[in-house]
Amino acid sequence: MSRADTMDRMRRLELLAVQLKQDSHCTVQDLAEAHGVSRRTIARDLALMRAQGMQIDADRGRGGGLRLDRTWGVGRVNLAYGEAVDLLISIAVAERMDSPMFLASLGSVRRQLVASFSPEKRAKVERLKARILIGVTASTYVQAKASAPPKRVVQALHQAFIDQELLDITYQREDGVRSNRLIAPHYLLLKYPIWYVVAFDHLREGPRTFRCDRIRAAERTGTSFTLLPKKAFEPTLLNDDLSI
């Protein structure tokens, strides 16, 4: 087994332990589909987990489920780099919103996460944090008309933002008119609880701000872009009416 295969299996075992701890009814087939492996692979993983002392209970009979004994702890949390970055940025957003509640331990969590990165990755995370902007709270009018964006849109926008990649989107204005845009997502702006993407719009050939919940479809292009300075977007950011 190669080093990559070994690392993949170790990561899968960690995720299996978490999943079995959380889900009240989970079958081998469910686990195989969730992790993109065969039932035999999952069976071998479960056998190894039991050999390591994990108490995995199984219901007998057709459709029987699996679960990790509720008294068993899953141990330390091992995050993939992307997960750690997301958590660190979320902590930074919470701190910058200056909420007095539940912030007592965030500094300690942030320091531990940062310490787990190499200097190169720390610098990359700092650049990402600088591209997330916090504005004033959205008006009640805007909040009343907001909805959660589709999961696929969030995933595509999230990755394009991190990788500095052009994004094809379908955008719907407040009046219902839709248009297809090619955008470079330079910054993300939170006017709580509404997220906006501050982008260079290649259709309009200039900076534009789009409400994330009005993006109906998004597809990554694989084409990278060069980050522009924040001052290039200042006219757009100074516009209080961001409900386009």
UniProtKB/TrEMBL annotation:
<dbReference type="InterPro" id="IPR051534">
    <property type="entry name" value="CBASS_pafABC_assoc_protein"/>
</dbReference>
<dbReference type="Pfam" id="PF08279">
    <property type="entry name" value="HTH_11"/>
</dbReference>
<dbReference type="Pfam" id="PF13280">
    <property type="entry name" value="WYL"/>
</dbReference>
<protein>
    <submittedName>
        <fullName>WYL domain-containing protein</fullName>
    </submittedName>
</protein>
<keyword id="KW-0804">Transcription</keyword>
<dbReference type="GO" id="GO:0003700">
    <property type="term" value="F:DNA-binding transcription factor activity"/>
</dbReference>
<dbReference type="InterPro" id="IPR026881">
    <property type="entry name" value="WYL_dom"/>
</dbReference>
<keyword id="KW-0805">Transcription regulation</keyword>
<feature type="domain" description="HTH deoR-type">
    <location>
        <begin position="9"/>
        <end position="67"/>
    </location>
</feature>
<dbReference type="InterPro" id="IPR001034">
    <property type="entry name" value="DeoR_HTH"/>
</dbReference>
<dbReference type="InterPro" id="IPR013196">
    <property type="entry name" value="HTH_11"/>
</dbReference>
